[in-house]
Design brief:
The protein has 73 residues and is mostly helical. The protein is built from two helices and no strands. The longest helix has 31 residues. It is rod-shaped.
Length: 73
Amino acid sequence: MTARGTGGPGDPATAVLEQRVAALEQQVAALAGAMRTLTAGLEETPFREPGDTTAARAARLAREVLIAARLGG
């Protein structure tokens, strides 16, 4: 029989879960950053000229953020 972990700080299963949660937190932060970039690029302002490429630049930057975080390709 194998012994089960106690779930305490020294338990290997707890360490694995902590690593997975940290990875998820980083992914959520990257997604939030990409969303901020996209929304900023899509916001309409009274000073935006026709043919402005702000939205396209924001989309490219958001994609780069996701690629850097290994969330998009």
